[in-house]
Amino acid sequence: MKVTISRKAHFNAAHRLFVKSWDDTKNESIFGKCANPHYHGHNYELIVSVTGEIDPETGYVMDMKVLKDLIKSEVEDAFDHKNLNLQVPDFFDLNPTAENISVVIYNKLVKHLDKDKTIEVVLYETPRNFVKYSG
Ligand code: NI
Q1: What are 42-78's pLDDT values in tens digits?
Q2: CATH number for the domain that contains residue 108
Q3: 32 found inside a domain
Q4: Spacing, Cα 85 to ligand 1 middle (Å)
Q5: Ion ligand 1 contact residues with beta carbon within 5 A
Q6: What distance in angstroms lies between residue 64's CA and the mean position of ligand 1's atoms?
Q7: Start-end of H helices in the chain
Q8: CB-CB neighbours of 75 under 10 Å
Q9: Domain assignment present for 27
């Protein structure tokens, strides 16, 4: 019997979306306000879900405290109040779109989880725009 548990988290970060080989006009035509050379911020909302069997002894799929601490150390401490383009090495050569951020978060978290569990990352860049990645 597989059950999914989820934990919500939050971070604020600045970014700029652009392709280095394009000029400002083309970047602005594709990425709009997100191409602003002076950067801008988003209030990112994150939902991490872990699916697995219930441990018969504890009754847990996974200890929520462990998941909470993992999200804090791997994501919040790395991204919160940072400029993603300039301060987070994962994005030095990767456009920090919500799509790419969700894949980076997934990869940071999945390596700490037992192999018999699967995870899904949902990342809201705005209240209306969100992306989902599950490997
Ligand atoms: Ni943006």
Answers
A1: 999 999 999 999 999 999 999 999 999 999 999 999 9
A2: 3.30.479.10
A3: no
A4: 12
A5: 34
A6: 30
A7: 24-31, 64-71, 77-79, 84-87, 98-110
A8: 23
A9: no
Catalytic site includes residue 15: no
Of 10, 40, 81, 112, catalytic: 81
Q: What distance in Å separates the CA atoms of residue 128 and residue 89, rounded to the nearest whole number? A: 28
Domain range for residue 125?
A: 2-14+42-133
The radius of gyration of the chain's CA atoms, rounded to the nearest angstrom, is 17
Distance in Å, CA 111 to ligand 1 centroid:
28
In a domain, 34, yes or no: no
38 noted as active-site residue: no
Q: Residue 107 falls within a domain, yes or no?
A: yes
**pLDDT tens digits along 6-40:** 999 999 999 999 999 999 999 999 999 999 999 99
The pair of structure tokens assigned to 56 is 């018969």
Catalytic residue (choose from 15, 42, 74, 125): 125
Q: What CA–CA distances, in Å, run from 100 to 21, 59, 131?
A: 19, 34, 10
Active site residue 40: no
Check residue 125 and report its DSSP letter: S
Domain count, the chain: 1
CA of 58 to the centre of ligand 1 (A): 42
